[in-house]
Write a structure and sequence with these properties.
This protein has 296 residues and is α/β, with parallel strands linked by helices. Helices cover 26% and strands 15% of the residues. The strands form two sheets. An eight-stranded mixed beta sheet has the order 5-4-3-2-1-7-8-9. A two-stranded antiparallel ribbon has the order 6-10.
Length: 296
């Protein structure tokens, strides 16, 4: 059975934080909830075709889903051997009832908190609750996440081959309604396009049920059309509530560039790059390493 290091699913698409430059475009997303029945079918099929190391339920903010406990349970049933995690901003965690904590404990689902500045007041309480309920809790990236990298070039002047090899989302596959996508950005671009009248191509995904595991993994290893519009540049937008403007997601060095310049971008900040190029963003987190499971 072919192997893949990591996959994720959106419990919901919207969020309660509304972060500027969110890499999943959550401030632009409509309210949509993952079906427990659909996720059960998808995880059962996925477990037959791909050997996964890690699977996370996130969003959006997954704790906004009224059936989040059921999502955790069906994911574990379909993927009994994976490291299962739930990634949350933690704001709603102190309000979760006993059923949620029991489900996490019984299904060996760890809680991983994306530590944004608004969580400061809840941080200690979240740790105490997880300890009391005997559920593992960690902080994603191990520190406060003080912003998002703006990586988008609407004109599509990057090299898909090189961008895909150096992408810090490499290996971050998305499972959604019976289809597999190369990365969440490549799928969620639909909301950016709808909001701002753009036509940036998306990853069309591959049907989980109609394709063998090797073909699914091969699809995840290949660059997609969205890669041409990604810069992988470290242009950090400091954490702030979104204003809903397109510029929040556009890399600064592309905003300041001549629109008529169609020169493909090779490697921002790397060998052979010119003055003004920006270095790569931080190293990928362990679950988002390269297609072979190793950091590039």
């Amino acid at each position: 059975m072919p192997r893949w290091p990591y996959m994720e699913v959106h419990a919901v698409d919207h969020c309660n934080l509304n972060c500027a430059a969110c890499s999943h475009f959550c401030p632009l997303a409509p309210k949509k909830f993952c079906s427990p029945e659909g996720l059960a079918r998808d995880c059962n099929e996925l477990g037959k075709k791909i050997s996964l190391r890690r699977f996370r339920i996130l969003g959006g903010e997954p704790l906004l889903h009224p059936q989040i406990s059921q999502l955790i349970a069906v994911a574990r049933q379909g993927l009994p051997e994976v490291h299962l995690g739930l990634c949350t901003n933690g704001i709603l965690l102190p309000r979760m009832g006993e059923e949620f904590w029991r489900t996490c404990r019984e299904n060996s689902c760890s809680i991983e908190i994306s530590f944004y500045p608004p969580l400061h007041e809840n941080c200690k309480r979240c740790e105490e609750l997880a300890h009391f309920h005997h559920v593992p809790l960690s902080f994603d990236h191990g520190r406060v996440r003080d912003g998002f990298a703006r990586v988008l070039d609407p004109l599509g002047r990057s090299s898909p081959r090189i961008i895909s090899r150096r992408c810090y989302n490499a290996g971050c596959a998305l499972l959604r309604e019976g289809r597999i996508y190369r990365c969440p950005t490549a799928y969620c671009m639909v909301w950016y396009n709808a909001k701002f009248g753009q036509n940036i191509p998306q990853d069309p995904g591959l049907d989980l049920y109609a394709n063998p595991g090797r073909r699914l993994v091969a699809h995840l290893r290949r660059p997609c059309a969205t890669c041409r519009h990604c810069t992988i540049a470290l242009d950090l937008h400091p954490w702030a509530p979104s204003t809903g403007k397109a510029e929040e997601w556009i890399a600064a060095w592309h905003r300041n560039r001549d629109p008529e310049d169609q020169t493909p971008q090779i490697r921002p900040g790397g060998q052979g790059s010119g003055a003004g190029h920006v270095p790569f963003a931080n190293s990928p987190s362990p679950e988002c390493r390269g297609a072979d499971g190793w950091e590039r």
